[in-house]
Amino acid sequence: MLLSEYDLKQILLIEKKIFWFEINKLDLPEIICDLEGLINVLQYVSDFWKEEFRSEINSLEIINDSIEDGSISKWKGNYQEDIHNGIKKLKKMIISMLEEYLGRSDSNILEKAIIGDTCWLICPKCNDAWESDSLTAMVVCPKCCRALHNPRATQYK
Ligand SMILES: [Zn+2]
Hints:
By secondary structure, the protein is mainly α. The protein has helices at residues 5-22, 28-41, 47-69, 79-103, and strands at 114-117, 120-122, 129-131, 138-140, 147-149. The two termini are 19 Å apart.
């Protein structure tokens, strides 16, 4: 899977939004609205993936509509749990997309992170240093959100 620099930023933002929802910094209508907007701007991500992600958002939207119009009292099952499971699925989709992307060397990227010391990496673009023990092909600078080649990447199996 290929992601543009722009895609990667949006995907990291989606991950952040999900985290904010989990710690109650975003409510359900907010996260639905934010994720719908972010999904629409992704450039290289397949339509199939987007459809799957969107259908999970739609399920959350149905719950949210029921909460807003008061019909949630008639919800079959535990709607809180359904929200939790829906968010969990979205999170899983985002994490596995990131893992897949970072697992392969991206030839569109020229820069390589710099080894600071045994557990630190430095971004050549913004000079930020962060703790990393990752052995994947690519790493992401947490400050500027750019993908970089990982100097510690284990060679291809
Ligand atoms: Zn950086």
